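User: I'm writing a short report section on ligand binding and want a predicted complex to refer to. Could you take this sequence and D-xylitol-5-phosphate and write out the structure as tokens? A short remark afterwards would be nice.
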Amino acid sequence: MLRKVKIVPSLLASNLLRMEDDVRACERAGADVLHVDVMDGHFVPPITFGPAFVQKLKGITAMPLDVHLMVTNPDHQVEQFAEAGADWISVHAEVAPHLHRTLARIKSHGCKAGVVLNPVTPLEHAFEAAGESDFILLMSVNPGYGGQSFIPSFLTRCERLRSWLDANGHSNVQIEVDGGIKIDNARQAVDAGASILVSGSGLFVGDLGVNIEEMKRVVA
Ligand code: DX5
Ligand code: ZN
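Assistant: Sure. The structure tokens for the complex follow:
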């Protein structure tokens, strides 16, 4: 199945005091979705954006918002982020013991639902949840920080997951990759089966507009 590759800038790498300029640059360059990293200081050490931020962001752009919940208790957060304007919400399998219910809750708000797996979390978690998922987010770094190096074992994990999804009636479930994606490895991730590419430092270091266009070109 041919899937259009989506380029998804991660606002964690944006200039926080001039975020609106970066959002406009993403729009102009034709990025597809904006990635919002929610960190609670518990599941991962940093604390980042909350629902009030998502609500403000929603007010200034029509781009879909992809909210990646790096929080210990996602069930407590889903509703707030959905009401704030999230379009996609993903939760880590490592901290969501009732995944079917959590994914159903996300969808009940009209959002796309995703399961996130850390680099060593067994793919079986995604297999079991595929029927309720719109996308599976495979981390290609350990979550918590931008600017880390891509972990190469992502590539075989991604190939395995893509094959399993296609062989088991889940061709519609897309694979998102997050962490260390740059212009020089984006193509490899796509060839391994990813169709949603999150990139922070890979796009925001240097000229954002030029980098987005270049990344679109290498994956086209
Ligand atoms: C890491 C976050 C990522 C981060 C990616 O925990 O989930 O979305 O912003 O940043 P880069 O692309 O710089 O690795
Ligand atoms: Zn993320």
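A remark for your report: Residues 3 and 204 are 25 Å apart (CA to CA). The first helix runs from residue 19 to 29.
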